[in-house]
Amino acid sequence: MDLMKNSLPALMVVLTLIACETSKESTTVEAPPSNPPVEGFDAMGSDSLAMAWADACMSAMGGREKWDQLSVISWNFFGARNLIWEKPTGRVRIDFPGDSSIYLFNINTMEGRVWQKGEELTQPDSLKKYLARAKSIWINDSYWLVMPFKLKDSGVTLKYSRPDTTMKGAKAEVLELTFSEVGVTPNNKYEVFIDKSDSLVKQWSYFREARQDSASAIWPWDNYQSYNGLLLSTDRSDNRGPKNVKVYEQVPDAVFESFEVPELD
Fold first, then answer.
1. CA–CA distances in Å: residue 81 to residues 32, 74, 94
2. pLDDT tens digits for 194-238?
3. What is the architecture of the domain spanning 1-265?
4. What is the largest CA-CA distance in the chain?
């Protein structure tokens, strides 16, 4: 895939916005229609240059249409658990091989089933507790996999921070993400380093509290691979995060309904 060719239209938008940002005569810029923000995105609190880089990143990773068309994706997280997410419906399966725990649930309705210690949980309060835990796991693990597609998500405020370089020396544009009443830890902050040469995220910094001056952790976001035209960072150079990523057009309903371990190609 020619990454530069795919990201050229969005990069032209970025260059135009840079010119506008530096012009005293231009104070407002409309966001490109090709990557509209999710309802609830803080467009008023975000700035146009940051949104333009977010759009360039979306384009470089395959485009909004490819992201919207993603059906089913599976991955292993840190070697600890396996996840399968049916994006259009919100159905999720999480398997913990170490203790045979299994979560089958819908992130939209929060209905589901839980298998713990050799039996299914049926007590309502316990079931509610573990389903809430399952959603927290999904929020965390999916963010490690698809964060660049969520730069204009609900509850996000996106700011352009500065030009900088990654730990590997690549020139990057740094965007700052803060959150309002979303996710499990809304007080977090992230800095996303977008490589100027190809518009792909190559590094991210985690701030446990948004007010911190220095990052709590810095991780690479590299080793991109194409999944039906969608670029995802997997099996990263620091051996952390998502591994063994696969995408499917569809999977049997039993994947999300049965505690039996599914056999998928």
1. 38, 11, 7
2. 999 999 999 999 999 988 989 999 999 999 999 999 999 999 999
3. Clam (2.50)
4. 67
